[in-house]
Amino acid sequence: MGGFVSSTGYPVATKKQLDDPDLGPGFLESIQKIRAEEIADKSKGDALSKGVALAQGLWFTTQCLARLHQRLAITELEVATLAFAVVNILIWLLWWGKPLDVQEPMVVGPPKPPEAQPIVPHQRPRLARFLYAINGGLVEEDDKYNPHLSTSVPLFWTPPLPYDYHYWTVGITALAGSMFGAIHCAAWNTDFPTATEMWIWRSGSLVIAAIPVVFFLPVFLCVIIDTTFKKTILEKKILEKKIDAIMAYVFIGILPIYLLARLILSALPLVALRSLVPSAFVDVNWSIYIPHI
């Protein structure tokens, strides 16, 4: 949904379309005439709604930090919620200028293109879409997507980019995933109802924190090899294919373990609510942070 489309309904999303000698100039002229205010006006979210959501996440994070400072107990459910809150804060900051839930696209280009091709929905199998959605930020590239035969842009897609960008994408994704797991590790010494639950929580937290790093290791090693040894274009292409193959095998191997750990860390905080320490019911004393005479 949203974005730029031609008068025939297919997306205008690739450099190849803009470089087209027949349609490209019309697309460029139309896009340049569209003001940023017009795009922002289509967004379902404004600074107020985004600010409220961001403030809620920051307020919850502040409460958790205050409880730590006052040596009050933080429940496993609060720790799990804190992990999601931190991730959401980062997403909101990165997407602050992104139009939200734009439904109606903007039509650009000439009203009657020289040749109209049949349009079919661009849709991957459900399993393929699921794997693309969680496979470390790897996205479909331009040469695998034909906008002239589609009514929409794939959910996870990018124009052709240098392969180094994929290294950064996987690296940042691994860092975010490890941070998510590391926050769960903050409850390492929390009072659990039983020792079994404590060790299950610790194991699950370590798995969540470590697996993103394990997933990134093959890419890191290939980057070292690629930067240390001089290679031809053909050799680099072969290296890229090896990276993709290694990451695919690693991903398939660790996915069940990761999903199991996430499931455990989602259920265990709810189970632990049956037996909480007394300090978990004590409110934060905010007055000690307010300057007074």
UniProtKB/TrEMBL annotation:
The keyword Transmembrane helix applies. The chain crosses the membrane at residues 77-96, 165-187, 199-226, 246-265. The keyword Transmembrane helix applies. Keywords: Membrane, Transmembrane, Transmembrane helix. This is Uncharacterized protein. It comes from Mycena venus.
